[in-house]
Specification:
The protein is an alpha/beta fold. 39% of the residues lie in helices and 10% in strands. The radius of gyration is 25 Å and the shape is globular. The protein starts with a helix and ends with a helix. Bound molecules: 2-acetamido-2-deoxy-beta-D-glucopyranose (NAG) (5 copies). It is an enzyme of class 2 (transferase).
Length: 475
């Protein structure tokens, strides 16, 4: 009896252990693949934007090294510690002076190298520019979702930088409105469907539409939407919670141009606008698109979204509802009462954006979105750093003390991911859903280790870094 039971037990244990190993491996592989794809796409887009929208008067020299050598020791060097711009060297004219921008790391040794520019998504502990000399300013450009590179989101890491451009309104160059090209587009009637037509369309369409193909992100939106679906109908066209196919003429990548797709979305009364992460000021096209189309967004994401909405009655804010059931009740009420529904479109129909914070953010930003007459945000970031470096050089010439710059922890600050207490619709094999919390917790240790190693001010190996991360874990 006992030996047989014992043998069974051990076989069982080994099987369970093996299973866990497989699942973990699979999750890491998926995570890696996913991040890589996303990065490649993002980099490509940004570089395209960057090169397409160079404004008139922006100096572009074709033989950068020659030009630079002529003006040797004249221009401060801004060294991109990232392949982001792909520029081997370029003299750029900013308000306060000219700087030389390059991704060529041989300039690390050059005494004119005053600033290192980092791109958050590919910020890597490998090969940091150490030792960091006293005149080396570090600047971080990080416009992407908080889920890319968690370790930067903790005080020990973010405060290593002198300058920041992030989605946070507290950053030195806030990119909060990066997905909104202008206020005019918000007020547009181009795709708007009158309420009478929407009511007729309700015979074959759900009141709500959801289109998401990046499933199980840190915000756990698919779990919430899955629960909501128990109480109200949702047409879901994306990969996540898919229950409806796009019409044939659109259901093929080449014919799915934006306008055709927008026309489909615009037929709905409500669009589920759920961000992939929950973080103050992290607002994407998911919020702006429904507003542009004349559809009421049901928004989940930035807890401070009210700071950015065109008016205080332009979106249904999910956080205000106790449960998906309660939210569904509210939406049903609006669905059956046109007066209630139209109150949420009044700001558009009356051509009135009452949020002065939004208006001034768009008016005052020094960069454009899809606008070739303006600098893009990468150029604006480069010039922000270049200008600050020149300001300090001028102060030094006058014998005055340099101005100190330091990132605050508020420049990149997100609460850790939380799961909703509902059963997810489908527990996928390699659930990313369970990865975000441990990954965020570990990133806290990574941030601490990074801080210690950077302050030691010597280059370090991957091995040293991970040893430190796991040592601090066993404290
Ligand atoms: C990097 O710059 C050095 C001069 O500092 C130059 O000799 C080298 O060819 C450059 N490398 C690339 C890839 O442009
Ligand atoms: C919403 O805006 C209106 C007009 O701007 C204002 O009178 C009202 O007090 C605001 N309501 C809230 C809850 O902020
Ligand atoms: C619709 O909502 C408006 C505004 O709250 C209210 O005055 C009206 O009585 C409602 N109509 C119906 C049929 O419930
Ligand atoms: C940049 O940050 C470093 C580290 O915090 C600091 O030593 C240095 O003085 C800062 N430089 C400027 C110009 O503020
Ligand atoms: C630090 O950099 C030097 C010079 O590039 C290199 O020889 C050395 O191996 C590096 N040390 C570590 C720990 O990476």
């Amino acid at each position: 009896m006992i030996p047989i039971w014992g043998k069974k037990f051990w076989i069982y244990c080994i099987l369970v252990a093996f299973f866990f190993l497989l699942v973990t491996l699979q999750v890491f592989l998926e995570l890696g693949r996913f991040e890589k794809q996303k990065k490649a796409r993002a980099l490509l887009q940004d570089v395209q934007k960057h090169t397409e929208s160079r404004p008139i008067g922006y100096t572009e020299k074709h033989n950068p090294h020659e030009v630079f050598d002529h003006g040797m020791n004249k221009y401060p060097i801004m060294l991109w510690w990232s392949p982001l711009t792909g520029e081997s060297g370029r003299l750029g004219q900013c308000e306060r002076g000219t700087c030389f921008f390059t991704i060529n790391r041989t300039y690390y040794e050059n005494p004119m190298t005053k600033a290192f520019l980092f791109y958050g998504t590919d910020f890597n502990i490998d090969n940091l520019p150490l030792p960091r000399k006293s005149y080396h300013e570090w600047a971080l450009f990080h416009e992407e979702s908080p889920k890319n590179n968690y370790k930067l989101f903790h005080p020990p890491a973010i405060t290593l930088f002198n300058h920041t451009a992030t989605f946070s309104q507290h950053s030195h160059l806030p990119l909060t409105s990066q997905y909104l090209e202008n206020l005019q587009s918000l007020k547009s009637y181009q795709f708007m469907v009158p309420i009478q037509n929407k009511n007729m369309l309700r015979r074959r369409l759900a009141p709500l539409v959801y289109v998401q193909s990046d499933c199980d992100p840190p915000s756990d939106r698919d779990t919430y939407v899955g629960e909501l679906m128990k109480f109200i109908a949702v047409d879901s066209y994306g990969d996540c919670l898919h229950n409806r196919d796009l019409p044939d003429q659109v259901n093929n990548p080449s014919s799915m141009d934006d306008a055709q797709f927008y026309r489909i979305l615009a037929q709905y009364k409500f669009i589920l606008a759920f961000e992939n992460a929950v973080c103050d000021d992290y607002i994407t096209e998911k919020l702006w698109r429904p507003l542009k189309l004349g559809v009421v967004p049901v928004y989940y994401g930035a807890p401070n979204v009210m700071d950015w909405l065109p008016s205080n009655k332009s979106a249904i804010v999910v956080n205000r509802f106790f449960s998906p059931r309660e939210l569904a009740e509210h939406i049903k009420q609006m669905d059956t009462n046109d007066t209630l529904y139209m109150e949420y479109l009044e700001w558009k129909l009356q051509d009135r954006i009452s949020n002065t914070k939004l208006v001034s953010a768009i008016r005052d930003r020094k960069w454009g979105v899809q606008d070739i007459t303006q600098e893009n945000y990468i150029d604006a970031f480069e010039c922000m750093v270049c200008n600050k470096v020149w300001d300090n050089m001028h102060l030094k010439d006058k014998g005055l003390p340099a101005k100190q710059w330091k990132a605050e922890s508020s420049h990149l600050n997100c609460p850790g991911p939380e799961l909703f207490p509902f059963m997810p619709r489908h527990t996928s094999r390699s659930s990313m859903r369970d990865m975000w919390k441990p990954s965020f917790q570990q990133s806290r240790k990574e941030a601490k280790a990074l801080r210690i190693l950077v302050e030691r001010n010597k280059n370090f190996t991957n091995q040293e870094f991970w040893n430190l991360v796991f040592k601090s874990g066993s404290e």
